[in-house]
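Appendix C. Worked example: Sugar transferase
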Amino acid sequence: MVIELLLFIGSLLLSFRLRYGPDIPYRNMEAFKGSIVYVSIGFVIVSILFGTYILYNKSISDFLFITIIGQFVVSLYIMALTFAGRWLAFPRSVILINFFVGCLILFLWRLVVFKTYQKLSGSKRVMIVGMEKEVFAAVDNFSNTKSIRHIVSHVVLSDYYENVRENLNEIDIVYLASQIEESEKLRIYDLLMRQDKKFFLNTSFENLVMVNPNMMNIEDESIIEVSPFRIASEDGIIKRLIDILFSLFLIIISSPIMLVAAILVKRSSEGPILYRQTRITKEGREFEILKFRSMGVTAEQESGPVLATSNDVRVTPVGKYLRSLRIDELPQLFNVLKGDMSIVGPRPERPFFVEQFEKMNPHYYLRHNVRAGITGYAQVYGKYASDFNSKLNFDLIYIKEYSLILDLKIMLQTVKILFDKVSSRGLDEAEHTIHSEEELVSKGIKVIH
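Step 2, the predicted output written as structure tokens:
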């Protein structure tokens, strides 16, 4: 982080020299000196919120996106600072030059760091333990990731403790993909601690309950208080205030885009400009979500309610672009202003699907302890195509881990996923590809019973 900050400051100085030559005007140099502390703080905060310094789950393309978008946000921040006073004035030409210079210098540095990290840390061999269904899904997740940090080398489908113990020297991490007997899980955990091996757990409800606990001391005993799946009331008030201010700001700056989108929707197909649909939000309350219409008006007359799929034939040509750029969701800012939604929160589902999901998962109602959101933890850290159980786990993690910083991080990460086609796909029924032990073996994975 320190080296990056020095490189960023150096890129600013280089940009001044590229603009003015060796003799930088005194006024501009004073502006640089007077604002460097504020600019540096902004750069560090943006870099942290974009997850720049978390390396294990990144690829080179991720760093390219992070660098370009991060520099764009920092440039906007510097321009905003110029309104604070003339002593912070940066020439716009220098800000523009620095965008390109900073992107080049920082990306090359991050590439060196990432390659060094990969060389020094290498790939970790993962043993996945559990029942077939959960194990196959876990192997898919590890196989589909862009990172080479974690490589599945072993799969254990029965007699878990003994098989883990016998193959311990061949692996670095054990990932428990299923719920197993508590006594056997503790034996495996004890074994791994003694051998200095890592232990991963899945995000089942039993494990999520223990996330972010409160510690209490009563006389001579320490007690673990399980935290609820709710946002504290005082945090909720601050969150609502930010929602109001941020939605008003976004409505103002996005109004030209919404005007163009409305014209295109109206001219491209028959029907209303806005699409209204009943969704579920906080405490199970129904509301009408607003979106720019991206499908024909008869899209579900014969099929009834169905989830969106990748390459959905019901989507109009204009709607395809509106959805890929998330422009179709801009009218939801009015839902936020009204109080039906939040900027960040679980994506709202339709009553028809909520009833189905609640029958399949008795804990589904917990996601309705907060307002539904335009963007959320599941959209940023998962995939749009994830099944409802996976998205539910992301939503519950968000509620448990909620903080203002987390909301800011999700909002910035949302900018990144706008350029990621995977995150804007619909549900794909063929998403999971592992269906048999033979397929595991063909991938070079050792299957153990």
